């Protein structure tokens, strides 16, 4: 039965299936890239917030911290 169904698939149907498969792959790849970028931004923001908190806890004023970073 299954072999009979496979035999009746036309070349056009195979090409359509291939095109849909390729499109799905491209969309999945874009989705993965978007997710990775989002995760990277979130991680960067968290690290930046932690660094700012550490610098403020060091006892320096915000002005001193800015001055130190402008000098580097």
Structure in a nutshell:
This protein is mostly helical. The chain has three helices and no strands.
Report on this model:
The chain is mainly alpha-helical and 72 residues long. It has one domain (11-70). Helices cover 86% and strands 0% of the residues. It has 3 helices and no strands. It has helices at 2-7, 11-57, 62-70. The longest helix has 47 residues, at 11-57.
Helical content class: over 70%
List how many beta strands DSSP finds: 0
Content-based structural category:
mainly alpha
Largest sheet: none
* Total helical segments: 3
**Number of structural domains:** 1
Distance between termini? 74 Å
SSE layout and pairing:
Layout: H1 2-7, H2 11-57, H3 62-70
Which short descriptors sum up this protein?
rod-shaped, 72 residues, 3 helices, 0% strand, mainly alpha
